Amino acid sequence: MAKLIALYKHPENKEAFDKHYFETHVPLTEKIPGLRKMEVTRIIGSPMGGKGKYYLMCEMYYDSLEALQSAMRTDEGKASGKDAMKFAGDLITLMIGEAADE
Amino acid sequence: MAKLIALYKHPENKEAFDKHYFETHVPLTEKIPGLRKMEVTRIIGSPMGGKGKYYLMCEMYYDSLEALQSAMRTDEGKASGKDAMKFAGDLITLMIGEAADE
């Protein structure tokens, strides 16, 4: 299992961010070929208190690293990436991860 | 669904980190009452290239925020937290998250 992890810092306008994220970005991302599962998590704080640096995390699961990399090169993958950069390019950190037990 | 997310920055000594993490920290964490699932992900890079800031992510799933918070107050939760702070206190970022569709 491999996943693309997107971590978003707190946006200035949370309402506008959520509207674009859930109404436009998620539907675009769901079209990516080979995407097996998508898990969106609202970060609500830290056990130490405080709101922390990040606002939202999205994990996009693929069968393998190769499948993930192929998916990012499809038209749908590029459209999702382009949209993320446009609406949240200054907020996003992207990471590629692989299950540790593989 | 709620989860505790631990993001670890790159350790200086990856071999010593992995040994402690997988042989001591994971078994301690698996004992925490109410823990439903644990997903450990090796961060292998960024789609933009480069190794990025983070080395490893661990997600610990609970039935609810309340269950997560109760779990952290148990002896097993405290032992896991204490161990993390001891071996990786300078590397770890902890976040509490909730599934966005709840």
Automatic annotation (TrEMBL), chains A, B:
Source superkingdom? Bacteria
**What would be an example GO MF term here?**
oxidoreductase activity
Q: Which Pfam families match?
A: EthD (PF07110)
Domain EthD, chain residue ranges per copy: 10-88
Q: What is this protein called?
A: EthD family reductase
Source species: Cytobacillus depressus
